[in-house]
Design brief:
This protein has no helices and 60 strands. It is mostly beta strands. The strands form 15 sheets. The protein has a five-stranded mixed sheet, with no helix packed on it. Strands 39, 40, 41, 42 and 43 form a five-stranded antiparallel sheet that branches. The protein has a four-stranded antiparallel sheet with strand order 2-60-59-58, with no helix packed on it. About 2% of the residues have low confidence.
Length: 633
């Protein structure tokens, strides 16, 4: 291995195709009712509400930025997207006009009724956090309304005189209101009915500020005398209201009806004048955000996987639906012929970008996937503790393999039909074609119903990663130990390799014909001679945790991926990582290729196709990217 400093190669790796639309956070109707904007982990998707199955267009910065909140200007000319910056888009041209650096991740955004101003708030723990009023035309700050307070669900009164929101300060929620002209605080009080306030909205005539708490109960305040008498509606007293946590509410255009919806799809329609319940029903929809069209006749809801549903608010009829397919994307694997790509969301056609079929038989999240060597079988490991074996041709489940007592974190084929699976406490081997159990150290079926390696009895503390290559199984535990097993030797025993990584285990292992690579939370890629167990060298170009490794089929390239930076939780100081980091090296030529930013979330897995021309990366942003790999090798 060449240990000279790595030099950069100027030819960039090219992102070719994104599979999936990311994790959805928010939804908004355009003022003309002709567009639905969905804020996602990769940008803003624009849908036709009359045809949700049609391919939407994507508004995204370069490099992409996760967007958690979206709002249209009342005149319909602008759209605001809140992420790490506050983006203003021209809705006529779909061009980015400007990005306002607010000092941290935006948690709420709203336009003034005249579309001339915009109010935003930042996340707690940002470089600076609070509430600001901005001039739309120039992007300059007009006034800071609050310092070191996070305020969610910001909204202007329709007459433009007031701004209201729900503030979190010193671990307490309160309703806060400002004079929009002077920036003076007019009201600040923990104004829930049965629980903490969660959402506020003004009536169309600006005469009422409605507060919805986390049980779905309602409080009606006079915004000009908020400390005076108020009306309230207590909802679900004595009932379980844990599903309420309201993602949305809205008035009809004439102000006659108020509609609220819970996180699990429980909708209530109220007479806004008499405060009587007009109707309630369950929509069987788990929503993360809800928005009403301009006249209040239709309601759209979005869930985290990017599914959208639209209902007629009067008849309750479902008038449009798109199921969505986003997942946390923890795993990817190419089929041997390169036609298909499997992920936790299902199997994809990489030519069209279409998802062909999901793994609907699992009741838990799919944590790992693997094709058999001839591509006829596909294995899935799930949080439901079941291993699924699927026929790729028939797209059907052949076997549900049970026996693991913990989520199945790793599945891999080590022969045409030999399947190795691992959970935190055991490693098992199966005949994938028949569903029979095999011995971990023998490729012949046993008479016992199941053979397994119990990790505790073997002195192994958990399974952090699992890999196969050169007739060797490699397993890493929670303490930076790597265990090697030679599958073709009848007298094989586990060989242990250890490297000091400050007590941090290896998240990823990968074999080439010559080397084995390992990587973990110490931000380094370790290189080993798998024959002798000798440590050969280290690559230290990453800045944070590494979760995935893969060698190209010809061994020329090594890809590593994980997080862009390590941060501290502002509440308890615990470390976590964020952002995406993908590196590509030629170990023989000591080159590192330039890789543009493509994901907004941590990259959890990657895989080369059979001829090494494509690299797939799976990210916590809920998408998969296919990259064109330099052909210089």
């Amino acid at each position: 291995v060449n240990r000279e400093p790595i030099s950069f190669y100027p030819e960039a790796v090219v992102p070719l195709l994104r599979l999936g639309r990311g994790i959805a956070h928010d939804i908004a109707w355009s003022p003309d009712g002709e567009t639905l904007a969905m804020a996602s982990s990769v940008g803003v998707w624009l849908y036709d509400p009359d045809d949700l199955e049609a391919e939407p267009s994507l508004l995204s910065k370069s490099p992409p930025e996760a967007v958690t909140h979206v709002a249209y200007s009342p005149n319909g000319r602008l759209m605001a997207a809140g992420g790490d910056t506050l983006q203003l888009w021209d809705t006529g041209t779909n061009e980015l006009l400007r990005s306002i650096d607010t000092g941290g991740a935006v948690v709420s955004v709203a336009f003034s009724p005249d579309s001339a101003q915009i109010v935003s708030s930042n996340r707690f723990g940002s470089d600076r956090y609070g509430v600001w009023l901005w001039d739309v035309a120039t992007g300059s700050e007009i006034v800071q309304l609050a310092d070191r307070r996070v305020v969610a669900n910001l909204t202007f009164s329709p007459d433009g005189a007031l701004i209201a929101g729900v503030a979190l300060a010193d671990c307490c929620f309160s309703v806060v209101m400002w004079d929009a002209a002077s920036g003076e605080e007019r009201f600040n009080q923990g104004a829930g009915v049965r629980a903490a306030p969660d959402r506020v909205l003004f009536s169309p005539d600006s005469a009422t500020l409605t507060v919805i708490d986390r049980t779905g109960s309602l409080l009606f305040l006079d915004p000009h005398d908020p400390y005076g008498n108020s009306d309230s509606i207590v909802v679900g007293e004595g009932e379980d209201t844990s599903d309420w946590y309201p993602p949305g509410a809205g008035y009809t255009a004439d102000g006659g009806l108020l509609v609220t919806m819970s996180g699990l799809g429980h909708m209530r329609v109220w007479n806004a004048n008499s405060l009587q319940l007009v109707n309630e029903f369950a929509l069987d929809w788990e929503a993360s955000s809800v928005a009403f069209n301009p006249d209040g006749s239709r309601m759209a809801a979005v869930n985290r996987r990017g599914g959208i549903a639209i209902w007629d608010t009067e008849s309750r009829a479902l008038v449009g639906q798109y199921d969505g397919i986003a997942s946390s994307s923890h795993t990817v694997d190419f089929s041997p012929d390169g036609r298909w790509l499997a992920s936790d969301a299902g199997v994809w056609d990489i030519q069209t970008g279409e998802r062909l079929w999901p793994f609907s038989a699992h009741e838990g999240l799919v944590l790992d996937v693997a094709f058999s060597l001839d591509g006829s079988l596909l294995a899935t490991g799930s949080a439901d503790q079941i291993v699924g074996v699927w026929s790729v041709q028939d797209r059907e489940l052949l076997h549900s393999l049970t026996g693991h007592e913990q989520p199945v974190k790793r599945v891999l084929f080590i022969g045409q039909e030999q399947l190795l699976t691992a959970s935190d406490d055991s490693v098992r081997m199966w005949n994938a074609a028949t569903g029979e159990s095999l011995s971990v150290s023998d490729d012949q079926a046993t008479e016992a119903p199941m053979q397994t390696l119990e990790l505790d009895s073997a002195g192994i503390s958990g399974v952090r990663s699992l890999a196969y290559g050169n007739d060797m199984i490699a397993l890493s535990d929670d303490y930076a130990n790597i265990y090697l097993w030679h599958t073709e030797r009848s007298d094989a025993t586990w060989q242990t390799m250890t490297h000091d990584t400050f007590g941090r285990g290896f998240n990823a292992l990968a074999f080439s014909h010559e080397w084995m690579a390992s990587a973990g939370n110490d931000s380094a890629v370790q290189l080993w001679d798998w024959r002798t167990g000798d440590h050969l060298g280290v690559i230290t170009t990453h800045n944070s945790w590494i979760y995935a490794l893969a060698f190209s089929p010809d061994d020329y390239l090594l890809a590593s991926a994980g997080c862009a930076e390590t941060l501290r939780n502002p509440w308890d100081g615990s470390p976590y990582c964020a952002g995406a980091d993908l590196r590509l090296y030629s170990l023989l030529d000591n080159l590192q290729y330039v890789v543009p930013q493509g994901h907004t979330g941590v990259i959890r897995d990657l895989d080369f196709n059979a001829d090494g021309t494509l690299l797939a990366t799976a990210s916590e942003d809920g998408t998969i990217l296919l990259w064109g790999v330099p052909a210089t090798h």
